[in-house]
Write the structure tokens for this entry.
Amino acid sequence: MSLRKPRLLVLGITGYVGSSLLPYLSRDAFEILTIHRSPYTSNLLQSAGIHSILGDFTDLELIEKTSSEVDIVLLLAKAEVIEFAQAVGRGLMKRVRDGKTGGRKPCVIRLSGAESFVRESGVRAEGERLSDLPGSKLADRISWNHPMALTDRMLIQTGSLSLITTKIVFAGLVYGRSPSRIGYQVASIVNLALARRCVEMISDGTGRWPSIHVQSLCKFLSHLLIDVANNPNQANGSGSEGLYFASTSEHEQKELLEAIASKLHLQNLVDSPNLKVVAPNHVLPLFGRRGSLVFGGDAPFEPARARLLVPDWEKGTASLWDSLPMEMAGVFGVRQRGR
Ligand SMILES: NC(=O)c1ccc[n+]([C@@H]2O[C@H](COP(=O)([O-])OP(=O)(O)OC[C@H]3O[C@@H](n4cnc5c(N)ncnc54)[C@H](OP(=O)(O)O)[C@@H]3O)[C@@H](O)[C@H]2O)c1
């Protein structure tokens, strides 16, 4: 049976990851749609061959309706808002109920973060490294209380009903230049340090944190999309088997925090180049559930599926250390523009 070109809805195309993904999206393989809120980007998107719908992501009826008209939804926004992903799920299930799939099982792909696997205490279990190979029972390791993880769990459960395919990509710290804005993770550490005039770390800072250049992440997402397009009725790879890690390197929390502290101290923006230790039981009261994200928690993982899916995985992009000066300069640029 020859299937028509799949219709792909990308939500978050103007963001840090979304704007980097744009050149990787194949117009030959997909009919691409997007919902975005700025009228100024409509022409740009249309001229890039993308159908643009003006709207806001708080309009869940629009999200549900548009999702019901496509085969694949890529979620690059609102990772912590469960209602947003639920609206997409309802739309795709409606497509199935209405018999509109044309032989192609609808699929949602969501970008989530490594913090979904961080224990609230931030304390590391020695030698533990998570793998995303099917059969590794990864879903059992997802946190029960991080807001990001609640949506992950909901999607896994939806996928196990087998009506639609659900895939979740867990990315580490994403760094590197993007056309629209700077990444938020290094920026979060720097902004917190500037506000408190010190750089803090959880416990002894030996927690390991994965990272990935934004271009590598986009390359991976584009391969995953093609895989879904080519295998529309995949029996495996959904629900608790549809989980993927995306990282090309990793660092110790302390390594990154010390590098940032030393640069900030040279500019007299923090009081000391030394890190201030935060006890794990203070993370939640002081910084809330996003605390471990701000510092980088402890979630080393093996991106085994990415290695299988993407030729030359790990090759050809700047390291986090090469990108750090640009990331930090980006924060100051944003702060100055914001004045
Ligand atoms: N970057 C990372 O390090 C990382 C790592 C793991 C997971 N993630 C998750 O992946 C997703 C994408 O990350 P990102 O860094 O690319 O985020 P981002 O730069 O903040 O982009 C968010 C996107 O969502 C759009 N958006 C947000 N609220 C909207 C609304 N009410 N109506 C319409 N559009 C709205 C933004 O549109 P505007 O351009 O109009 O603002 C933008 O296109 C996020 O959910 C994030 O939590 C990111």
Residues 12-18, 36-38, 56-58, 76-79, 111-113, 171, 174, 181, 183-185 surround NAP (CB under 6 Å). The chain has a mean pLDDT of 89. Residues 320-338 form the longest helix (19 residues). The radius of gyration is 20 Å.
